Amino acid sequence: MKYGNEAGPLTAGRDPGDRAHAPGSLRLVQALVNTLNAESEKDLLASADDTARWIATADLLPAGSRLSGAQQRALVELREAIRQVLGTHTDRAVDAEVASRLTVALSSCRLAPAVQPDGGVRLICSDHDPFTRVVGQIAVVIAEAAAAGTWGRLKSCPGHLCGWAFYDRSASGRSRWCSMELCGARSKMRAYRGRARVSS
Fold this sequence. Notes:
Blueprint: H1 26-33, E1 36-37, E2 42-43, H2 48-57, H3 69-91, H4 96-106, E3 111-115, E4 121-125, H5 130-148, E5 154-156, E6 165-167, H6 180-199
Antiparallel strand pairs: 1-2, 3-4, 5-6
Helix pairs in contact: 3-4
């Protein structure tokens, strides 16, 4: 599975800020959000066949698996629901509607605790339907990241035509932009032009 900074089969472009990716399995959620590059309009989940290829590349289903249009739309809805939640991480906002959207997008899967031989407990998806297990695996990653304290550092860039998911490794955890040189600079320029129009 390729998660590097190069544009690869799991993301729709190169990471604008050349940041290190999210740790561990949280990279899967980051890659899912980054299947859409809003600026170039490249979407790796544009059709059911495209979505099946992405899921196979991510090792979530075997190559050659088929998806219905409804399943493709469900994964796109999950991606966008996650992107919205990551936006609240960026703004440090609380939004019940956004949280509810992600809850609904994940509600098709059933998670259950599995006791390990060493006495530890981990979540597993107990569904038999292959696509529902894909959703379940994403839900497990989110739950584990929330427990580990890494979920809140996965953010969505608020830049115009961006929304790129990035992992904030700053000491303060207050990074806002995927790249200060790109989205951060563009935002400052738009604000400057807005002030100049008001003052003229």
